[in-house]
Amino acid sequence: MKPFFYYIALIGTISAILTLYDKIAAIGRKRRIPESSLLWIALLGGALPMYLVMIVIRHKTRHKKFMILLPLMAVLHTAIVCFAYFLR
Questions:
Q1: The dihedral formed by the CA atoms of 45, 47, 52 and 57, expressed in degrees to the nearest 10
Q2: Per-residue pLDDT tens for 25-70?
């Protein structure tokens, strides 16, 4: 069970770092991370940290697909983690 929770922690950290990087790149007009890549990372388990970071740093908050999909993914991931925890 521990590897599963390590994975969740790792993917959450990666998603937060990528979100911060994309914000910094947007400010500096440098090469950005494609939205599809951010959404894939979110789908793989990083939706909640990515959503929280986006709210805090005000990044992509006007993009409806991020403000709708990320919370939905976060609820799904939370349900999966709770289910996995109670199954052990």
A1: 110
A2: 999 999 999 999 999 999 999 999 999 999 999 999 999 999 999 9
DSSP assignment, residue 63? Answer: -
φ/ψ bin of 33: left (φ > 0), alpha (ψ from -120 to 50), beta (otherwise): beta
Q: Where are the domains of the chain?
A: 2-87
d(CA 65, CA 39): 9
Q: Give burial (CB, 10 Å; 0-12/13-18/19+) of 66.
A: buried
The amino acid sitting at 60 is K
Q: Are 46 and 14 spatial neighbours (Cβ–Cβ below 8 Å)?
A: yes
